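User: C-alpha cells in, sequence out, please.
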C-alpha cells in the first residue's frame, strides 16, 4: 500500500510548532533494483536538542568506541546488543518521540510503474504478490529492472531503448503468468505503449521536480503528515541531501504544508544523529525480516516506530514490521 500524496497532509490549525529532525538510510538514488540495499528507511525524531545531545553522549558512554562519528553499524554489532535494545525500548530516548517510514524497493518500483502506466497504483500489490510469489527467476527480475530503467531520468543509449526493453520484459512475464489477476494486469500494461513513450519524451525534455523513482521526497511528505496529524505546524531539520535542491524544498513546503525545511550536517545536530541511528537500524532490521533472517526481538522493538502506511509488498514480513501508527509526543 502506497501513501496517498494528494491527501497525506491535513490542513494546519494553528497548533504549536514542532521541529522534527530527519535522516534516511538505504538511498541508491534512482537505482532501486540493483543497488546496495533492498530497503529504504526514513526516520524522524522530535526531541529537545539538549535531550538529544545527552542521549548521544549516553550511547557513546555505553559503547566506548574511539570512533569520532558513531553510525548505526556501531549499535548493530552483537557486542552492543544491550545498547541497541535500550535505545529502541520503552525506557530509551526514542520511544514515543520517533517515527520510521519503510520502503521495500522492489515493490516501490512496481507501485510506481503501475500508477504511471495505468493511472492507478491499486493493482500493484496484486501484480507484485501474484508474479513474485510464484516466479522468483529471470522474467521477474528482468521486469523489475526494465521498470526501473523506464522510469529513471538518466538513460544510456537510444531514448526509446527503455520503452522497448520494458515491453519485452512485460511479454516475458505474461508468458509465465498468462492467467489470473496478475495476467490481466500484465495484459493492461502491455497495451500502455503510448503512455510509456509520452513519459520518456516528457522527462527527457523537462525532468519533473520530484523524480518518480526516488522515495525520499514522498517520504518527507508522509513524515510531515505524521507529525502534523494533530494540527501542529511542522518544521524539518534534515541531514544534507543532494536531492533536496532549493526547488524541491520549495515544492515540499507547499505540498506538505511545512513551516520550514533546514538542511544540516548530521554531525552538528544531535537530533539528526539520533534520526541517522534509527534510520540505519530500521533499514537493517527490516531487510533481515524481508529476507527471512529476522530477529523477533529486534523486529518487535522496531514495530512501534513503523508507519502503518509504509510502502511494503511482502505480506509476511510486512505483518511483522508494521504496527499501528504512533501518536507524536509534543
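Assistant: Sequence out:
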Amino acid at each position: 500500500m502506497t501513501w496517498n500524496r494528494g491527501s497525506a497532509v491535513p490542513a494546519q490549525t494553528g497548533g504549536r510548532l514542532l521541529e522534527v529532525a530527519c535522516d534516511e538510510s538505504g538511498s541508491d538514488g534512482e537505482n532501486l533494483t540493483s543497488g546496495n540495499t533492498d530497503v529504504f528507511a526514513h526516520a524522524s525524531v522530535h526531541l529537545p536538542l539538549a535531550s538529544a545531545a545527552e542521549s548521544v553522549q549516553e550511547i557513546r558512554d555505553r559503547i566506548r568506541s574511539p570512533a569520532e562519528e558513531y553510525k548505526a553499524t556501531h549499535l548493530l554489532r552483537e557486542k552492543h546488543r544491550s545498547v541497541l535494545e535500550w535505545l529502541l525500548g520503552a525506557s530509551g530516548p526514542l520511544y514515543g518521540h520517533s517515527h520510521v517510514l519503510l520502503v521495500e524497493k522492489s515493490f516501490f518500483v512496481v507501485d510506481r510503474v503501475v500508477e504511471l502506466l495505468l493511472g492507478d497504483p491499486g493493482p500493484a500489490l496484486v501484480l507484485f504478490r501474484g508474479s513474485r510469489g510464484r516466479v522468483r527467476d529471470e522474467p521477474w527480475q528482468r521486469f523489475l529492472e526494465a521498470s526501473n530503467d523506464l522510469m529513471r531520468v538518466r538513460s544510456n543509449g537510444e531514448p526509446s531503448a527503455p520503452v522497448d526493453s520494458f515491453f519485452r520484459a512485460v511479454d516475458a512475464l505474461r508468458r509465465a503468468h498468462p492467467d489470473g489477476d496478475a495476467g490481466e494486469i500484465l495484459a493492461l500494461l502491455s497495451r500502455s505503449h503510448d503512455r510509456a513513450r509520452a513519459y520518456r519524451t516528457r522527462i527527457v525534455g523537462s525532468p519533473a521536480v520530484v523524480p518518480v523513482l526516488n522515495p525520499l521526497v514522498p517520504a518527507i511528505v508522509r513524515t510531515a503528515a505524521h507529525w502534523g496529524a494533530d494540527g501542529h505546524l511542522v518544521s524539518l531539520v534534515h541531514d544534507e541531501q543532494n536531492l533536496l535542491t532549493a526547488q524541491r524544498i520549495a515544492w515540499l513546503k507547499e505540498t506538505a504544508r511545512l513551516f520550514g525545511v533546514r538542511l544540516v550536517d548530521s554531525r552538528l545536530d544531535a537530533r539528526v544523529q539520533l534520526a541517522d541511528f534509527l534510520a540505519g537500524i530500521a533499514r537493517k532490521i527490516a531487510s533481515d525480516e524481508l529476507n527471512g533472517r529476522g530477529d523477533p526481538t529486534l523486529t518487535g522493538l522496531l514495530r512501534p516506530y513503523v508507519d502503518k502506511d509504509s510502502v511494503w509488498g511482502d505480506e509476511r514480513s510486512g505483518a511483522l514490521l508494521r504496527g499501528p501508527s504512533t501518536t507524536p509526543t509534543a
